[in-house]
Amino acid sequence: AQTVTQSQPEMSVQEAETVTLSCTYDTSESDYYLFWYKQPPSRQMILVIRQEAYKQQNATENRFSVNFQKAAKSFSLKISDSQLGDAAMYFCAYRSAPGTYKYIFGTGTRLKVLA
Amino acid sequence: EAGVAQSPRYKIIEKRQSVAFWCNPISGHATLYWYQQILGQGPKLLIQFQNNGVVDDSQLPKDRFSAERLKGVDSTLKIQPAKLEDSAVYLCASSLWTSGANVLTFGAGSRLTVL
Q1: 3-state secondary structure of A84
Q2: Using an 8 Å Cβ cutoff, are A46 and A61 in contact?
Q3: Whether the Cβ atoms of residue A10 and residue A110 lie closer than 8 Å to each other
Q4: Scanning every residue of chain A, which has its alpha carbon at the shortest distance from the alpha carbon of B37?
Q5: To the nearest whole angstrom, how far is the Cα of A108 from the nearest Cα of chain B?
Q6: Could you read off the pLDDT of A57-84 as tens digits, one per residue?
Q7: Is B64 left (phi over 0), alpha (psi -120 to 50) or beta?
């Protein structure tokens, strides 16, 4: 069975600085997708960034980028130029290959942005 | 486009009572998910629908939880009788279809407190 592990329950970053959130996963599948979702306090979860496992190039969305290491089964999120609005819970998620399409979420990392 | 609608946003009940949550996905989204998110944890899949058929309900406690998606559009999740450990946020999410990198769009969630 697939698992997703986020080992950092909480992280802090100074405004305008860079922070990296860690995620590791375990799977025997070769075809899958990885996601980072953001859940602001009392607000709904939204997609931050996604990565297809067959793509070697790391995904980038404005200030958000990932470091995808397939062999190491690692998928970290880097937030550059952190802003107060980045404060939220961040969840790493794995989506299974065709046939199940099951999403598995990690336990989350709470990011605090300090002014 | 309108987002995923959920109601009620908050519900407080006593143990052994029943409760129902409603979800209306984004128009045209064939896949609908119900997740349970206990405080401090990541979302856990309860049930996944493709149109009005069940794809995965392996983690749904069927002795007390039930869900339906009539006509392949909106969905209802019911808990009867509720237990203290059912206190959680119940998230509904939908996606266009399951193939490819189609992402989940989440509703705001329904927070249940069981006393």
Answers
A1: helix
A2: no
A3: yes
A4: A107
A5: 6
A6: 999 999 999 999 999 999 999 999 999 9
A7: alpha
CA distance B37 to B106: 12
Is pLDDT of B91 > 70? yes
Residue A106 and residue A64: Cα distance in Å, rounded? 19
Token couple for A109: 């990392």
**Distance between CA atoms of B36 and A14, rounded to whole angstroms?**
32
Mutate to test the interface with A, among B37, B39, B89 (most CBs of A within 10 A): B37
User: How far apart, in whole angstroms, are the C-alpha atoms of residue A105 and residue A87?
Assistant: 19
Q: Residue A82's CB: how many other CB atoms inside 10 A?
A: 21
Contact flag B99-A98 (C-beta cutoff 8 Å) = yes
Structure confidence by residue, pLDDT tens digits, A21-39: 999 999 988 889 999 999 9
Which range has highest mean pLDDT (A8-12, B29-33, B69-73)? A8-12
Nearest by Cα to B67 from B108, B107, B19: B19
- For residue A76, how far is the Cα from the chain centroid? 6
- Residue A12 identity (one-letter amino acid): S
| B81–chain A nearest CA distance, Å | 27
> Under DSSP, is residue B105 helix (H, G, I), strand (E, B) or coil?
strand
pLDDT value of position A99: 64
CB atoms within 10 A of CB A30: 9
Share of chain B above pLDDT 90, in %: 74
